[in-house]
Amino acid sequence: MNKHKFEDLDVDKFLAPENQKRSVIAPDGSIVEVDPLKDYFCQDRPEVLKPKNGPVEKFLNWARAESLWVLGFGTGCGSIEIPPLVTPRFDMYRYGVQMRPTPRQSNVFIISGYLSVKTLKRAIRSYEQMPSPKYIIALGSCTINGGMYWDSYNTINRLDHYMPVDVYIAGCMPRPEALLAGFGKLKELIKAGKAEKANEYAENFDWYKANQKKIIKDWNMPDYNW
Amino acid sequence: MDYSITKFLWTLLGLFIVTNWGMLMSSTMRRIGARVSGRIGIPWYQPWVDLVKLYSLRTQLTHGTMFYIGPVFRLMGGVGMFLFLPMVFGNPIWSNYSFSGDLVLILYFQFFGMLGMALGAGEGGQPYSAIGISRGLSQFTTIEVPMTLAVISIAIQYHTLSISEIVAAQQGGITTWTLWTNPLATAAAMLSLLGAFGHSPFNLVKAPNEIPIGPPTEFHGTFLGVLRTNSAILHVAEAALFMNLFFGGATSWFELIIKTFLIYFWSVFVGTVFPRFRIEQSVRWFLKVPTIIGILAIIIFL
Cα A68–A71–A75 angle (5° rounding)? Predict the structure, then answer.
């Protein structure tokens, strides 16, 4: 694995003032050099984590497909389509899909509609904190080409320029049935071993970061949020 | 083979049975809860699938040594409780490693896991964990008050701190159960059990939508898998403790399964009826009625 450190990337011009190197006077009068990105955050880049071989990975993929934990993170109008899924009418628990409140415990991230630039930053942070293997479902036409927000000054148009998407669900808005069908499709992909987008993100890390930094002006976080 | 080795292997088999029964019980109870709210609910095998998935995640992060040891402590709380609890009465193999003062040790193990968890979650550095820990520990302290009073009452009643002897004293039909001979202690303990199992209305510590999932906010993958394994063991062990103390123990695994199911169902039954308390309501509730009942249970036997 080639591990690049932060210095390799051109981060300086995006760096927020509070994250820049500075010297601080300690209580005892000595001067301490502080580099927030080095001292407060883990600097490692994400790595490509190869799947195990043969039947073992098949079994693990089956388990991963049957136990999809969705991050409770709603963006845009599509987040209103998720509550019906946990209530009697659609009941996604039948299919092993459950909601989790924290990115550390979830595998699936539903980008439910348009992403404003401000939310994109939070979405990236949350996505990067999820443990691999992780999957993204993009809900609604806003995530495909911008949809009705195509010429908005404040939203992104193509989600897969910024985050790797496993399954798109088209429509404005897609009904909860469509979302269930999307989960079905995602399960097929996982069981076939084709849902390796987390590795793709690690492989094309520089390209994704360049795209993200082009649009997020106040980049005051590390390059990869472990 | 040496008896001590044989006994150890049988105890491991017992732990295996208890773990799986705990997971099956939790999925069954979640299905019951789902039916009450008009859903179908998770498949019965979902806890096992979740566990395989959690153990097979590719990235695992740590925040330090205590972050590793926290879940292990928690697991030790459940396993320790199981080890010193006689599961099937009258059978030396399934009595595990119970001895004459095991009741006190088991009460300690009940709290031990919580403390380990607090240390581990604290090292995670997530503010939600810290809030969750303070809420969880303050609630659990008040849960312990009626529970301990009930246990003292039983100790006075039977003149012993050995669970096996307490079970032996209850043999001979339903009327000799502590449920009938000491109803006040049973009432206090059954009310504190509602909090110990952590279902609604006392699920304010670990409910997913309450200070995001409380202490385990940072735990993921194998860490969370260990915590889930522990909760399966702990639920059965606690139900078995209450079965031994108040409901005449069990003379076979079948009886144990029926009784632990019903004891666990009691907390789920209450949980599906009542909405969630806030922390100050929960703490006050445990310190009022259950504590008073517990004190009365002691006064009667003095």
Answer: 130
Mean pLDDT is lowest, of A154-168, B29-43, B197-211, for B197-211
Q: Which residues of A touch B49 (CB under 8 A)?
A: 63, 66-67, 96
Q: Are B84 and B109 in contact (CB under 8 A)?
A: yes
Cross-strand bridge partners of residue A71: A100
Instruction: Check pLDDT > 70 for residue A164.
Output: yes
Sorted by sequence, the CB contacts under 8 Å of residue B170 that are 6+ apart come out as B176, B177, B178, B181, B248, B249
Q: How far apart are the first and last CA of chain A?
A: 17
Domains and CATH numbers, chain A: 6-39 (no CATH), 54-215 (3.40.50.12280)
pLDDT per position as a tens digit, B242-298: 998 898 888 888 989 999 999 999 999 998 888 888 888 999 999 999 999 999 999
For the record, the structure tokens of A67 come out as 């136990």
**φ and ψ at residue B205, rounded to 5 degrees:** -80, -45
The count of other CB atoms within 10 Å of the CB of residue B38 is 10
Residues of A in contact with B212 (CB under 8 A): 101-102
Chain A residues within 8 A of B41 when measuring between CB atoms? 91, 93-94
Tell me which of A85, A105, A130, A199 to substitute to probe the interface with B (most B C-beta atoms closer than 10 Å).
A105
Q: Compute the half-sphere exposure of residue A168: CA atoms within 13 Å on the CB side of its CA.
A: 14
What is the model's pLDDT at position B58?
87
pTM of this structure: 0.86
B121: closest CA among B73, B50, B80? B73
Ramachandran bin of A81, using left for φ above 0, alpha for ψ from -120 to 50, beta for the remaining angles? alpha
The gap from C-alpha A66 to its chain's centroid, in whole angstroms, comes to 20
